[in-house]
Amino acid sequence: MLKRKKSSCHGSTEMNIEGLKKVVLVGSPNVGKSVVFGNLTGMYVTVSNYPGTTVEVTRGRLTKGSDTVAVIDTPGMYSLLSITEEERVARRILINSRPDLTVQVIDSKNIERMLHLTVQLLEAGLPVLLDLNLMDEAESLGVKINTEVLQARLGIPVTATVATDGKGMDELKNIILYQKVSEPEPPFKYGPLIERAIREIEKNLHNDYGISRRAVALLLLQDDREIRESVGEREGEKSIIIERIVQRTRDNVAEPLNYIITMERQDFIKSLLIDSLTCESPVRLPLREKISRFTMHPVAGIPVFLMIIYLLYEFVGVFGAQTAVDFLEETVFGQYINPVANRIVSSIIPWKVLQDLFVNEYGIITLGIRYAIAIILPIVTTFFIAFSIIEDTGYLPRLAMLIDRVFKKIGLNGRAVIPVVLGFGCDTMATMVTRTLETRRERIIATLLLALAIPCSAQIGVILALLSGNTAALGIFILVMSAVFLFVGFLAARLLPGEKPLFYMEVPPLRWPKLSNVLTKTYSRVEWYFKEVLPLFILASILIWAGKITGIFDLTVTLLSYPTRWIGLPPEASKAFLYGFFRRDFGAAGLYDLKTAGTLDGVPLVVSIITIALFMPCIAQLSMTIKERGWKMAVGMAAFIFPFAFAVGYLVNIILNGLGMVL
Hints:
By secondary structure, this protein is α/β, with parallel strands linked by helices. The chain is built from 29 helices and ten strands. The protein has helices spanning about 35-40, 85-95, 110-125, 135-140, 145-155, 170-180, 190-205, 215-220, 225-235, 235-250, 255-275, 285-295, 300-350, 350-360, 365-395, 395-410, 415-425, 425-435, 440-455, 455-465, 470-495, 515-530, 535-550, 550-565, 575-580, 585-595, 600-615, 620-630, 630-660; strands at about 5, 20-25, 45-50, 55-65, 65-75, 100-105, 130-135, 145, 160, 275-280. The strands form two sheets. It has an eight-stranded mixed beta sheet with strand order 1-3-4-5-2-6-7-9, with helices on both faces. Strands 8-10 form a two-stranded antiparallel ribbon. Helix 13 runs antiparallel to helix 15, helix 21 (about 470-495) packs parallel to helix 27 and helix 27 packs antiparallel against helix 29 (about 630-660). The protein is elongated, with a radius of gyration of 28 Å.
């Protein structure tokens, strides 16, 4: 993970790389590409969105002495025949940036699968350097690669690295900085039918597409829609001739052209590896490989997942949400900061109404900053640490594989596990992370489910305190929240138009997490928290203050008392729901006060907890939803969630009372 000197979610911050030699890193996901990038560029990089997309692109500089080159890290891609938005962006960078060198980072133990992209890059006429990363893991599995033979056969430089340990990185840097890599020749010839079609298409291409005409012809034969549209716009009448060539070629074969082209590449790769690859059976299957398979098993993987969730709860829910929060809130703020702030502000500002803006019950310091630092910060920090450890071990892709089948039923795929898991830490951040999902339909469904059925860690901490010692009530809460998550997702998947999600994910090896990586990732995420979320806490305090002095606050509480009574709760609970809009855990804390006062218990307590967990997203999450999905979509989601939460509360109240349950 890289420390960002400057970052921008919307591309406002760019590193000036004009005039420098441009090096573009490409490769499949989970091959260590970002680690290679970090070794090349060091700590200071810029991150921005690719224009017109939500896909992030990272830029940096490799400097040695007086020599400097610009390095661009692209999103993961499996093929130039792009399917996902990340692959489309990676290809556009290759086409538009005109790199002086393209460094393909591959997973050495899966070299046969990775070389398909290598062949395509060579066919595109791009100067390529092949980096065989993760060599230690390949060798542990008995895979030995002769880099000299591979280099001679492909006609490009080939290096071997273990980026996590820095092995081979000096050689890689020297080639990037000092070796001139020429445009390659096509690595092999296809069968006569395909080659004839390529030649005929090349004759009718008269414009520059950023890659070789041979590569454009092959993509047209494989029915790449983006390339087909580009050729249609640029070539005019010639595009009609090209379409006829493609159609005639299709008519003369029994299988799809994409299949034929892929299989011919596969035959070339196999012949290439016969000379350069030796596979020796390891003495026994490595332990971590056995564990890896165990974690993805549809039955055995479930207890592993539950164990991880339990450890996550102990670290985040107990240590973060209870021990650390109690110390910061009760001791640091309760005994020191808040009393001092109250005295200073009251001595400076004589007017009570202005004092309330900064201190007292709803002040910026005593409420907004206190909540941000004393309550939320320790929870999200412990969650970020735990999430970084899980991320570094390589468990997340395995969890994605485990739950992909279930997520397909609700219009998502296994990749959505990342924003969903992040949502249990902070829904605001998780909403931003939904931009990594492939389709607009998936992003909308994931955003809706995060806003409705995924309580953040801060709220979960308070809810667990409310249900402490009541196993039956906790079981009902988990059952209802899980049912709502699946039901709303299932319904949304059938109502929203769009393509069904595809799932492509490279599963990296299991690794011991590195402390330096974990700390760097946690630091960058906490930095994001302060920049993005802290201002929203301050805004919430100002809005509450304004609502109190204008009477809007009391009017809203009165209006909320009607649906509150409708689900069997005392009218005092309506204030907790309003607080919940400003901070989810703040609302749950209001219920905690009612329970402590003896106003709320038994079935009404369970009903109130379920309803407030499903209630409107907090103002910070709503703001992020507006930023990511647009205000119309955000308002539409809120308009659905508000009545739905109370409808579920109403049904739960009727069912539990009808069954005569005593909780």
